[in-house]
């Protein structure tokens, strides 16, 4: 795990032009603008290009197993509610093998931020089609074109009951930074799907493509209206804070944190462990 007291932060090794540079810059800007202290912040990465972001952020950090970033982040938050816990994982990581964890993470509504680097491809493993690859997308795993309908992560999050649903774009760092800041300040599971160009393996959806296709949308407090927005068959992709629930309606979580519970130090689990020896 990274330690924020170690001031040496290495430079990222992403491909030149990768959208992860914009996501990284936006996240660091959001942390600074929100006043979030590095020693009170944990970034949990998944497996993939964006999942290595904790290495280069100067906060506490942890790299999890493939698809398991959200339950790890939830466990960290349960152990110490004073920490701000942020997940950074890819679309294949989150919407593929980690899809169940994504849904139930939303249902548990832990106070964490979930940033999904969505480039529509498995970038780290040489460009296979991911759950958000469009139909017809040609890749090493779909040489004749992807025949599956792409997943709609925003619609999935809304129907699962997520209270903060947004979409950002790695090519617009100020907008993305503001979305992340709002997600950090939201007291519950905050989800941002980030459109991210992969300049190596998904050249159909490059910066020029996204510049023409994205369109800003206004936030709504109505879940059905938000669902209509993200489900509409349109040529342009909605970007912005799409839905935000009234946080006063959330179930209040206990303020007690495991690391500050004086009773945990006196618990002896030796006999329990001996049963499995």
Task: Describe this structure as you would to a colleague.
α1 (20-33) packs across α6, α3 crosses α4 (99-108) and α5 runs antiparallel to α8 (223-231). It is globular and about 60 Å long. α6 links the parallel β7 and β8. The chain is built from nine helices and ten strands. The longest helix has 14 residues, at 20-33. The relative contact order is 0.14. It has helices at 20-33, 69-79, 91-97, 99-108, 153-160, 173-185, 207-213, 223-231, 270-274; strands at 41-45, 60-63, 84-90, 112-118, 121-122, 128-129, 164-169, 190-195, 214-216, 237-244. The strands form two sheets. An eight-stranded mixed beta sheet has the order 2-1-3-4-8-7-10-9, sandwiched between helices. The chain has 277 residues and is α/β, with parallel strands linked by helices. The protein has one domain (20-274): Rossmann fold (3-Layer(aba) Sandwich), CATH 3.40.50.970.
């Amino acid at each position: 795990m990274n330690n924020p007291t170690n001031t040496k932060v290495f430079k990222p090794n992403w491909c030149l032009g990768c959208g992860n540079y914009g996501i990284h810059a936006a996240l660091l800007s959001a942390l600074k603008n929100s006043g979030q202290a590095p020693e009170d912040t944990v970034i949990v990465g998944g497996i993939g290009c964006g999942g290595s972001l904790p290495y280069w952020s100067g906060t506490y950090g942890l790299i999890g197993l493939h698809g398991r970033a959200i339950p790890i982040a939830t466990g960290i938050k349960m152990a110490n509610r004073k920490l701000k816990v942020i997940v950074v994982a890819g679309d294949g990581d989150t919407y593929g093998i980690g899809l169940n964890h994504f849904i139930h993470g939303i249902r548990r509504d832990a106070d964490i931020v979930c940033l999904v680097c969505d480039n529509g491809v498995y970038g780290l493993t040489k460009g296979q089609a991911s759950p958000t690859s469009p139909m017809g997308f040609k890749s090493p795993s779909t040489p004749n074109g992807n025949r599956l309908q792409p997943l709609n992560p925003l619609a999935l999050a809304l129907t699962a009951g997520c209270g903060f649903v947004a979409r950002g774009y790695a090519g617009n760092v100020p907008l993305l930074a503001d979305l992340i800041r709002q997600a950090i300040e939201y007291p519950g599971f905050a989800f941002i799907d980030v459109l991210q160009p992969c300049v190596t393996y998904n050249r159909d959806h490059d910066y020029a493509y996204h510049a023409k296709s994205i369109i800003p949308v206004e936030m709504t407090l109505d879940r059905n209206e938000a669902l209509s927005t993200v489900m509409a068959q349109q040529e342009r992709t909605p970007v912005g804070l799409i839905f935000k629930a009234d946080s006063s309606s959330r179930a209040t979580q206990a303020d007690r944190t495991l690391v500050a519970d004086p009773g945990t130090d006196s618990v002896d689990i030796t006999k329990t462990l001996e049963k499995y020896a």
